[in-house]
Amino acid sequence: MLELAKTLLDFGGRVQFSVFEARLDRELLEKLVDRLEKIVDKSEDSVKIYPLCGSCEAGVRMIGQERRLREEDVYIL
Question: pTM for the full model?
Answer without folding.
Answer: 0.75
